[in-house]
Amino acid sequence: MEMVDKMKDPAQNAIGSRIASVHNGSALFTGDAGSGESNIRRYIIENDWLDTIIQLPNNLFYNTGITTYIWLLNNHKPAERQGKVLLIDASEQYRKLRKNLGKKNCELAPEHIANIQEAYENFKTVEPENDTGLAAKVFNNTDFGYYKVTIDRPLRLKAAFTPERIETLRYDKSLKEPMQWAYKTFGKPVYQDISPYAKDIIEWCEVNGIELNAKKRKELQNSNFWQKHQKLYETAETLMKHIGSNTYDDFNEFKILVTDTVKQQKINIDANGLKNILSAVSWYDENAAKVLKKTVKLKGKKLENLLKHLGTTKEHLPDFGYYPFGEPDTYQVYEAYSDLRDYENVPLNTSIHDYFLKEVKPYVTEAWIDLDKTKIGYEISFNKYFYRHKALPSLEEVRQEILALEQENEGLIQKILDLTTK
Hints:
Blueprint: H1 2-5, E1 18-24, H2 26-29, H3 36-46, E2 50-55, E3 68-74, E4 84-89, E5 95-101, E6 104-107, H4 110-122, E7 135-140, E8 145-152, E9 157-159, H5 163-167, H6 176-186, H7 195-207, H8 214-220, H9 223-243, H10 251-264, H11 271-280, E10 282-284, E11 292-297, H12 300-310, E12 323-324, E13 330-334, E14 342-347, H13 352-359, E15 368-378, H14 382-385, H15 395-421
Parallel strand pairs: 2-4
Antiparallel strand pairs: 1-3, 2-3, 4-7, 5-6, 8-14, 8-15, 9-10, 11-13, 12-13
Helix pairs in contact: 6-7, 9-11
């Protein structure tokens, strides 16, 4: 990127700037959509600066045998090259050295350089004449880009207050092991004043290989931290006495029941604490009801703006997570289950919605597109573009090779036996 930043603006320099840079393969594809590496490729390609990439033979350099590539950048392309990129596969264009120089065992002969130069200047597709021939292909800039699309499915939860589930509220998830050990070892006094036991707990963590950062170490030695979890446990215990231990297949009903009970019994608990309790006493079940996130009214300008943002029509709103419910213009949005979240790479020249209807919805009917999480990525795959199929040997060829190996082995065995008898 440093060299790219130094390119001269064509408005200030009639010929602009050109760069030739040698890279390994990671520059072509390392980094997911939205990552720094992908964004660099995106920046270069979307500004139409990438002119040509040439794949060189392996073992061409002294200290590495990996595949290398020459990137040619130009911020003032001729009209016929604008919006396009030429890829040249010259991986088989080499001649062997008489003696290896480190890892370097080959070089480009004058005729190979001429072939590469001709392909670059012609800017046309070149089919290889044989297994060692040069190949070239012209692509549109958008051919290398893709949308990384988030596909979500609804969260389905069952819930029930049980002694085993509310017991987990005594412990912070990230400090469960030391807190559980301390409670079993020292009992309820740890929730009253932790200071007499703090040193023992820290030593136990060190002996058992549990690494603690400064924050976690401080929390383990803080009585307020322990008492907060004890209060969560006691609140859940109170709720269980009033609600019982029945299992609910609809988490939405269960949540309303718990919230109403908190109000009726005037239980002092904040929203985050209630969320922790509900999380502790619920679990995923594919047969449970979908968990509701919110209900929204969509009509008039609000509906118009949403449809424009999603690039869809009213009847296709469910494909984007808005499901008609009850009264007119009323839609439900469900919580997404992260464990079932999936991602689809959709080519830039393909409609995300059309791809979803064809490749996703027929197989996962309750899935939807979370369009706001969509990211754009760019990657270049020489293996995909220049794959050369090599036919497998015939059965007769394999048979003859096996027979030849057997004869060779018999000869070796006989020589060994002759040596041992002497």
